[in-house]
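Example 3.
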Amino acid sequence: MPEGPSIVFLKNKLTRYRSKTVSEASGYGEMDKSRIANIQLMDIDTYGKNLLFVFKDFFIGVHLGLFGSMLINKRKKVNASFALHFSDAEINFYVAKTKFHPGKPKDIFNFKTDILKPEFDPEFITEELKKEKYASQMIGDVLMDQNVFTGVGNIIRVEVLYRAKIHPESIVKEIPEKKLQFLFKAVVAYAEEFLHLMKTDEVKELAWVYGKKICPKDKTQLVIEEMGKVKRKTYVCLKCQKRYT
Ligand SMILES: [Zn+2]
């Protein structure tokens, strides 16, 4: 499943279509596409795992989910779920979910939680995590909550918890403040590293623990199992990562 950086990577591939005129939209998706005809594409943006096509008074959010993909000026044999057509180009999405939103992305989405936005605000996140619904949860679950850490996927979750030396089953309110601040920094730094590594397709190869069997630091066996409510495959070094409970 794509994570926030994977979507920024796609956005960067589309830069040349910014400010171009979209002649029409097509695809079998149910979203009403009638307003997308001979209209200027003002901007292409992202919010977490959503790719955003911004027009003057509205924008379209595209979510690739587990099996979605995007092709530029190429088509698969199956029909696209959503496509944007230009006079000399087309962007095709397969098995993607689309949503129509009135207004601008900033009116609807809170950029303070997006791990790849300059607006990402550790102080805001700190306050959010003090709320009971997050404070009593495991950090490994909260990291996957797109309302708090928008753009985090399983690879980022596993890698940053290892870097911050926090066991994923640690309860949020028991984690020392300094540790949490370190974790936020690790999230931002690793999201940028992830984006960089996508260019050479080395994200998995150069991960420290995700997809590995032993801890790179002390060579002990990693615990590999589905943990927490999110039930996602988790890699933990019990020597390096402390459990705060
Ligand atoms: Zn270790």
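The chain has two domains: 4-108, 111-236. The helical segments are 4-13, 105-108, 122-130, 132-135, 139-142, 154-163, 177-198.
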